[in-house]
Protein: DUF3885 domain-containing protein
Organism: Exiguobacterium indicum
Amino acid sequence: MNFEQYLQHHFGKVNLFDRSFVEKDFVIHVDLVKDLYQLKKNSDEINEEYFKQAYQKSNELFEDLFREE
């Protein structure tokens, strides 16, 4: 089961950007990327490296937490 499948299975159609999501009983905030921002410096251009690292780290975290041993 991957991260998206886990969210669908346990939370249904959850929107991670919806403000109501952060008001749930159990929420953990994790900084996945340090020293980078969503936008490139002094620009409104998306920083693809930020999102690449965030995606990679979130998948690694998910796999570490839910690894079957």
Q: What stands out?
A: The mean pLDDT is 83. Residues 25 and 37 are 28 Å apart (CA to CA). The radius of gyration is 14 Å.
